[in-house]
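User: Here's a protein and a ligand (heme C). What would the complex look like?
Assistant: Let me lay out the input and then the predicted complex.
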Amino acid sequence: MMAPNVTALAYEDIADVATYFSQQTRKPDEQKDESRVAEGQSLFYSRMPSCAVCHTAGSRRGMPMRGMMGGGMMGGGMGGMMGPGTANVPNLEGQRAAYIVDQLNRFASGERQGTVMNRMAASLDDANRQAIAEFLSSTP
Ligand code: HEC
């Protein structure tokens, strides 16, 4: 859906749009099921590799993807605009649970192609995806 919307943007426009969005604050979804949130939190940090190695959540920052994403795995090209070593990894905090579940389902089915997320998502079952999504969406 996004391709036709972004092809007309110049690099400076993309940078401006990115800056604008990076300054917005997200409102966490209302927390619904405490035990599912706790389960999601545990899944988010305890899986191998931990989701938090790449993504950040709450006050516990993920490790920056130096080397791995900046140069090697994703190639030099994608790191270019943001500088080498900067994580090109989406921030999932406060993201809507429904959106996260939808993206994980799309990664798992291959409908959305990512660099690393297809196999990550495929290793989660439906209940795992829902729990992780509820944890992330309740993280300010
Ligand atoms: C090795 C780094 C890495 C790990 C580990 C990782 N991710 Fe990701 N994730 C990414 C990258 C990079 C993207 C952007 C899409 C892509 O390139 O695959 C992404 C995208 C996503 C998205 C889509 C976000 C959006 O805005 O569309 C979700 C949701 C997500 N990851 C959840 C998870 C969960 C849950 C786990 C743990 C099971 C996890 N990720 C583990 C790197 C990682």
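Summary: The mean pLDDT is 80.
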